[in-house]
Amino acid sequence: MSEGPTYRGKPLPENLEKLMSERDKKALGLFTLPPAEVVVARVQKLQDKSEKVLQQDIAQYLSMRGIEFNVSRMDRAKTDKVGWPDFTLGIRPVQFPYAMAVGFEVKLPGREPTPEQYQQMANMIRSGWFVRVVHSVAETKTFLDRLAEWNPHNKNQKVP
């Protein structure tokens, strides 16, 4: 299909389209396809909103567990380090006297972190952080439960 208004399946000449008001176009049943960039931007906005809702759900879950955390805002331009995880927090395993630094990058199912986010996560892991990409509250819960039960002194136990 062509971009721009169509009438009876045929593209409306551009010079006529410019002369018509939006009301007249609507009355004639002219249909305008938005440019591809507009469609992509709308889809991205919906996905960002959904990711924000997932972030809010995870924040509520962490609060219910009494876990202190810091979360990056999604409604403004990023002001902290590029690629830094959405959530940072500390958690202390039952068998360990110290808290461990943890980071979560929140993504909707099927979406992956950016190259900058992967690089930052790798840097944090090299520095001793436990960093994960999470796609749901359940995934967050499972990872935190495994960390809480982990005994770093037990060589036979896998790192969560």
Describe this entry's structure for a reader:
The protein is an alpha+beta fold. It has one domain (36-149): Trna Endonuclease, Chain: A, domain 1. It is 41% helix and 15% strand. The chain has five helices and six strands, in the order E-E-H-H-H-E-E-E-H-E-H. The chain has helices at residues 14-19, 22-27, 36-64, 115-126, 137-149, and strands spanning 6-7, 10-11, 69-71, 87-91, 100-106, 130-134. The strands form two sheets. Strands 3-4-5-6 form a four-stranded mixed β-sheet, sandwiched between helices. A hairpin with a 2-residue loop joins strand 1 and strand 2 (10-11). The longest helix is centred in the first third of the chain and has 29 residues, at 36-64. The chain is elongated, with a radius of gyration of 24 Å.
Which descriptors would you attach to this protein?
single chain; 160 residues; alpha+beta; Trna Endonuclease, Chain: A, domain 1; four-stranded mixed sheet; two-stranded antiparallel ribbon; 5 helices; elongated
Q: How many helix segments?
A: 5
Kindly report the CATH topology: Trna Endonuclease, Chain: A, domain 1
In whole angstroms, the N-to-C terminal distance is 51 Å
Q: How many extended strands?
A: 6
Shape field: elongated
Q: What is the number of independent domains?
A: 1
Low-confidence stretches: none
Order of SSEs, N→C? Answer: EEHHHEEEHEH
The main sheet comes to: 4 strands, mixed
Helix content: 40-55%
Strand order of the largest sheet: 3-4-5-6
The CATH architecture is 3-Layer(aba) Sandwich
Strand fraction: 15-25%
The level-1 CATH class: Alpha Beta
Structural class: alpha+beta
Rg is: 24 Å
